[in-house]
Every structure is written in C-alpha cells, then in structure tokens.
Design brief:
227 residues; mainly alpha; Ribonuclease iii, N-terminal Endonuclease Domain, Chain A; Double Stranded RNA Binding Domain; 2 domains; globular
Length: 227
C-alpha cells in the first residue's frame, strides 16, 4: 500500500506532509470507520471554486448562466471518473470485501468521490493554493469551450439549471440517515429549496446517488406544479 501511495503522490505532484490524510482519502466507508466522506465534502467545495475560477478566466465573454452550464459538465460524475482513472486511483482505493467483490473499484460514483476526497486532503495538507494547483493540473487535459453542454444531464445539474433560470438559490442537500451494513449502506438524502418551501427525499447506495435520487424527486414535483 505504501508503494502505491508513494506512486500516487508523484502522479499528483504533491508530497504529503501528513500521509494519513491521503490514506483516509482513498478509504471507502466499507473498509473502515476512518473513511473519506468528510474529505469528499471538503474537496467538492474546493473543486467547484477552482473550476469556477478557471472558467471565469478562460471564458471571459460567457454570461453567468452559461458558465454554470459548463461548470456542471466539468464537475459531473463522468468527468471526475475519467480523471480518477487517469490518476490510477482504482489501484489504491481501499474497499471492504463486499464492495470489492461487487466491483467497487470500477464504480464511477465511488471513484468520483475518491478524487474529491484527494482534493480535500491536499487542501488540508497544504492549503488552498496547493489544492488549486492540483485541480488546474488535472483539468489541463480536459477540453473546455463555451459550446460544451452537459449532455444527458444528471438530475442535480438539471435541477440547478431550472432554479438558476428562475433566479433562485441552489438547493441544499443533507444526509438524513444511513441504513445497512458498512459494505451495503444506503443513504437517505433530503433536497430542500428554501425559497419554495419544498423538500424531497431520495435513497441511493452512496451519498452522491442519494442526492441524485432526491433531485429527481424534486424535479418531478416542480414539473407537476408547472403542469
């Protein structure tokens, strides 16, 4: 495991002062109680901020709504999954036996979460500028242009755009509860739109999947109200 993490640090171009942070970042909740979900939460916020800054600089003539659309494309699960594979994260992720047997090493949602956790770990280890530099390096090989669209938009992206088109604030998501054994947990997630005083819940096999399910339920409610 140590050799794998040493090689990962070279690919990241970041040498951790606290290697325990990197170990936690690649640890799924099915493997240990000391898992990566809090780092994932942090990394998600850092990633969003850095990608927004990249787009603000590179697409200077694009209005806010279009910038949000391009950003949604760049931080969606499919993009993060590809970046995760390019970093070799499937080779170092720590999974419980059940999750390993079910193909967790190749599951896009898990790998996307691990990448966000690694970004969060770099942020805690060396600060925002180090995490920013990592995200910038990761996205050097990703095509960014004003015409790109979030093809086959996931429910969270579609809901975000629906709200932004009506000048409303973004929805909030929170995990209400987790159920089941560590390697087969389900996440009950609430999606709330404060301005409309609406909330919906969804259940999924990961926090990300639960958020998508809750967003789907919210979209269905909003569309039924419009109709």
């Amino acid at each position: 495991m140590k050799s794998g993490l040493d090689a990962l640090q070279k690919r990241l171009q970041h040498q951790f002062k606290d290697t325990g942070l990197l170990m936690r970042a690649v640890t799924h909740r099915s493997f240990s109680a000391d898992h990566n979900e809090r780092l994932e939460f942090l990394g998600d916020a850092v990633l969003g901020a850095v990608v927004a800054d990249i787009l603000h600089q590179r697409l200077q003539d694009l209005p806010e709504g279009d910038l949000s659309r391009v950003r949604a494309n760049l931080v969606r699960q499919d993009t993060l999954h590809r970046l995760s594979v390019s970093l070799g994260l499937p080779e170092v992720i720590r999974l419980g036996e059940g999750e390993m047997r079910s193909g967790g090493q190749k599951r896009p949602s898990i790998l996307a979460d691990v990448l966000e956790a690694v970004i969060g770990a770099v942020y805690l280890d060396a600060g925002f500028m180090a995490a920013q530099a990592l995200v910038q390096r990761l996205y050097q090989a990703v095509e960014i242009n004003p015409a790109m669209d979030a093809m086959g938009k996931d429910p969270k992206t579609e809901l975000q755009e629906w709200l932004q088109g009506r000048k409303m604030k973004l929805p909030g998501y929170r995990v209400v509860s987790t159920l089941g054994a560590a390697h087969q947990q389900t996440f009950d997630v609430e999606c709330e739109i404060i301005e409309l005083k609406l909330s919906e819940r969804g259940v999924g096999g990961s926090r990300r999947a639960g958020e998508q399910a809750a967003a789907t339920a919210m979209l269905q409610k909003l569309k039924s109200r419009v109709n």
